[in-house]
Amino acid sequence: MITPGMISYDVVLQGKHFLRETIEKLTLEDRLDEIACRATMDLAVPGDQFTGLPVIQPGHTMEIIGVPFGDTQIKQVFNAGPVWDVEIDNQRRRRWNITMYDNSIYMANSEDEYYFAEGTTATHRIKQIAAEWNIPIYNLPETGQPLAKAMHRPKNLWSIIWEALQETAEKSGKLYRLRMMPGTITTTPTYKFKPGGLELVELGSNDPVWVFELQSNLKHVTQRQTLDGAVTKVKIMGNASKGKRSPVVGTVTGQTELGTLQQVLSEHKTTDTATALKVANNMLAGVQETVSVTGIDINTIRAGDRVHLEGWPELLAISVKHDLGTPGSMSMRLATREHIRRRYYARRSL
Length: 350
Fold this sequence. Notes:
Elements: E1 10-13, E2 17-18, E3 23-31, E4 38-44, E5 61-66, E6 75-88, E7 95-101, H1 105-108, E8 111-116, H2 122-132, E9 137-139, E10 150-156, H3 157-172, E11 176-180, E12 184-186, E13 192-194, E14 198-202, E15 211-212, E16 218-226, E17 233-237, E18 248-253, E19 262-266, H4 273-283, E20 288-296, E21 306-309, E22 315-323, E23 329-335, H5 337-344
Parallel strand pairs: 9-14, 15-21, 17-19
Antiparallel strand pairs: 1-2, 1-5, 3-4, 3-22, 4-7, 5-6, 6-7, 8-10, 11-14, 12-13, 16-20, 17-18, 20-23, 21-22, 22-23
């Protein structure tokens, strides 16, 4: 069993098989630009126990249980979801590598067609999709931001939701993330689990906000600055007539001293000039700066959470990787709210 300090973890297969004795490595990864949390697990099975390992196949349900940081009770730390990939080292025979996701992975890999009327909010649209796809809900607060009407021909469900969250950010200034929350478990008289559900959370609204310092809970800090992702000019293109190039509706420029790094904003539908210019201005971005840190594992931190890092202003987690071990470690990629707004929440089309 993996025991980082006073915290122990177990992986439960199909709600009844406990794999703790075979776990060699267990990792959780959560990213801001992905809805599903990913877990990977390496199994090392001694020869005399090989025949006793239950069959593990894609589609089987797995969950991770353990003690959340600062708690004392064993709970779900990874919502029950499907095994996605199974790799077996046939030369060594005793090494298995398993990749699993929480149940929101189905939204990231499914398509459907939707029409949403003008004035509906991102919350309304998420609820409608969740209801039609029988996806449980944990907490979906109302964003309160009316959105433009939208006709989505067969399209990825997560892309539909992400576009609604981007438009919400553009019009209200608030950044939201949709994620799957862990469920609940009971251990008596028998072990049972109840899957969690979707939660819509505003970035940086987490409580508590963890403080990281080099002298106490950090091992390493790396600062990176790059022009990758920078945009210094946006050209707004209108609808093209048949056989002709798209007309240029307008252009906006930013930090031209960095050189011309142009993106095109395409108008696929009639849009007023003020809206087009606002979207184009939101696309402008200068030097991109992120901070990567490694330190002790706090297994409750999710992508989008706010942290206090010694020497920096407010930072939000773009991605978080938890290595659940002894004593356990964590790596995070962090950036300012403004960086995240422009990099992830700026729309690229109208």
